[in-house]
Design brief:
57% helix; two-stranded antiparallel sheet; Serine Threonine Protein Phosphatase 5, Tetratricopeptide repeat; mainly alpha; 2 strands
């Protein structure tokens, strides 16, 4: 019995020492290697993390969008676009403090970036700071030359809240998030 167990252990140990069979030894195809490549294989270029994140935001996948934006930050650095996108994703996830910090950093990076100004206003309204939000929306509205209906509506609601602190928007009214490029994000609720 000892010889059988000993022989089995030796055979098992030696099996791991055998050289890899080449592709020609297998029926996979001529010259094909059935094993995973040992190095990094790059085929084409990766998709821009911002584009992926924007699509995920539109689909309501905010946590995945945040991860895509973080990947974009690793690829391109913390540009104003990336900071604003990270802030918007955090806002949708109810992380208002993080969203505010990121959006303020985006504005510091580029004081003419309208989406960051608007989205910061949305954060401030969610944090019950309507006076500051109104000033932020006014800045966004001026920088946009009044072209965005969403920003105009956000400003109107913030001013109404400042004028009458008891003002509450109807439940189906929500502040709009905007981003660079086509499309918009709308905040439905925060946790």
């Amino acid at each position: 019995m000892k010889h059988v167990v000993g022989t089995a252990l030796i055979v098992t140990a030696l099996a791991g020492c055998e050289p890899r069979p080449s592709g020609s030894d297998l029926a996979i195809g001529p010259g094909a290697d059935p094993f995973a490549p040992s190095g990094v294989v790059t085929r084409g270029q990766s998709v821009d993390g911002l584009i992926v994140g924007h699509r995920l935001m539109a689909a309501g996948e905010y946590e995945l969008a945040l991860k895509a934006y973080l990947r974009a930050a690793g690829d391109t650095g913390t540009t104003v676009d990336v900071l604003s996108a990270l802030g918007s994703a955090n806002l949708h996830l109810g992380r208002l403090g993080q969203a505010e910090t990121l959006l303020r950093r985006a504005i510091k990076e580029d004081q003419s970036f309208v989406p960051a100004w608007n989205n910061l206003g949305v954060v401030l309204m969610e944090r019950q700071k309507p006076a500051e939000a109104a000033r932020v929306f006014q800045t966004a509205f001026a920088l946009d030359s009044g072209n965005s209906d969403e920003i105009r509506e956000n400003l109107r609601r913030a001013l109404a809240k400042v004028k009458n602190p008891a003002y509450t928007a109807e439940k189906n009214e929500a502040f709009d998030l905007v981003r660079r490029g086509r499309g918009q994000y709308q905040i439905l609720s925060t946790p």
